[in-house]
Design goal:
- The chain is mainly beta and about 375 residues long.
- The protein is built from two helices and 26 strands.
- Strands 2-4-5-8-7 form a five-stranded antiparallel β-sheet, with no helix packed on it. Strands 20, 21, 23, 24 and 25 form a five-stranded antiparallel β-sheet that branches. Strands 3-1-9-6 form a four-stranded antiparallel β-sheet, with no helix packed on it.
- It has a domain of about 100 residues.
- The chain starts with 6 loop residues before the first helix and ends with a strand.
Length: about 375
């Protein structure tokens, strides 16, 4: 296993595990044709929405927590708010108003994070334009795979063209089980690449993004309308030519599984791709050190993010100077096992600080487990 406390070990240890159990993953992936989409074309982001679904059994058409939702519709429709309908146990439709284009194939990407005091994960089932809205279907499961009612955070965003204003790095991918890319974005204009390896493992190439050493943040979400699955970052290999990230997905039983998924990479830009606004955002990737290196522990206003162990599987994170409403949090687990991470309650906002108490991580049985995670925070401001 990787030596604890070493960042290079953190980002490469899972890759050695993958090679060990996957039959030379890099070689296997190299034998698969890389899938690339057409080049992208307009501003960043074209449209977006984020929300906190704050009632596990919401009445039909409930307006979501207005302190923790925002979207690109607000410019033209300031009185509009995202709403939700529950359609089954643990299954919801979030309606982002006025940002759905004409009917067509799914565009953009979605991320979801469970917010629950118990071992629960939430995944995207699908998203689609239902003009004038963008509807995002979310399904939540308890450890073991039974559907469960839960609160959660949800983000939808779509980008094309060059970043406006320029600065930072940003890219995303929505990929099918065979590695085919449904939609993608890369702020350099390059085409992202995905190749499928052994079952439940994929290799993602993000040309031109990031630095040759670990910098930025990664979020991954499973996309499956039919079965409980969860996905995470298995390995991260920064390079001079861009980022190489390995995604792993697991069934409720903890076995590698083929499914669709989304991935977002951000460096000095918000998790939904915009910049200035928002001027207040941050991210971190806690290691065993109290203060990770600044390239992976970023605060857009220069504040010193703090990471404090809060018990087995629990991490308390504070983002000073950027705690402004409306705001949003996403979490993704990292490692070479089926462990998963979530939020155990809604984060706090006060005195200019956003306080995430806590990131909570679990093993496949639902027992609290020490697990590293990527945490991304953003305000709309």
């Amino acid at each position: 296993m990787a030596r604890k406390g070493s960042l290079s070990a953190v980002v490469s240890g899972a890759r050695r595990w993958a090679v060990g159990i996957g039959g030379a993953l890099v070689i296997a992936l190299g034998a698969v044709g890389l899938q690339a989409p057409l080049a992208a074309q307009a501003a960043v982001p074209d449209r977006f929405g984020f929300a906190f679904m704050n009632n596990p059994t919401p009445p039909g058409g409930m307006v979501l927590d207005t302190a923790h939702q925002w979207g690109s519709w607000k410019t033209a429709f300031p009185a509009a708010w995202a709403t939700v309908d529950q359609i089954a146990v643990g299954r919801y439709i979030v309606h982002f108003p006025q940002i759905g284009p004409a009917f067509g194939p799914p565009l953009g990407i979605v991320h979801v994070t469970a917010v629950n005091p118990g071992p629960v994960w939430c995944q995207a089932a699908l998203w689609q334009a239902v003009p004038p809205n963008e509807d995002v279907y979310v399904q939540c499961y308890r450890a073991g795979g039974a559907p469960v009612n839960s609160t959660f955070t949800v983000l939808f965003t779509e980008s094309t063209g060059a970043p406006v204003p320029a600065g930072g790095d940003y890219g995303y991918v929505f990929a099918r089980p065979n590695g085919a890319i449904v939609t993608q974005y890369n702020s350099t204009g390059a085409a992202n690449l995905v190749s499928a390896g052994p079952v439940g493992l994929w290799k993602v190439g993000l040309p031109g993004l990031g630095l040759a050493t670990p910098a930025g943040n990664i979020q991954v979400t499973a996309v499956d309308p039919q079965q409980p699955v969860r996905c995470k970052v298995v390995a991260w290999s920064p390079g001079a030519g861009g980022q190489t990230i390995e995604v792993g997905c697991f069934s409720a039983a903890g076995a590698p599984i083929a499914t669709s998924w989304t991935l977002t990479y951000q460096r000095e830009r918000s998790v939904f791709g915009a910049l200035a606004p928002p001027k207040s955002f941050g991210y971190t990737f806690p290691t065993t050190a109290a203060a990770p290196p600044s390239p992976i522990n970023f605060n857009s206003q220069g504040g010193a993010n703090t990471i404090t162990p809060a018990g087995l599987g629990l991490t308390f994170v504070q983002f000073p100077l950027i705690g402004l409403l409306q705001n949003h949090v996403q979490v993704t687990a990292f490692g070479n096992d089926p462990n998963f991470c979530q939020l155990n309650t809604l984060w706090g906002t006060g005195g200019g600080t956003a306080a995430v108490r806590d990131v909570a991580c679990y093993d496949n049985t639902g027992a609290a487990a020490t697990t590293r995670s990527f945490l991304s925070y953003t305000s709309r401001q």
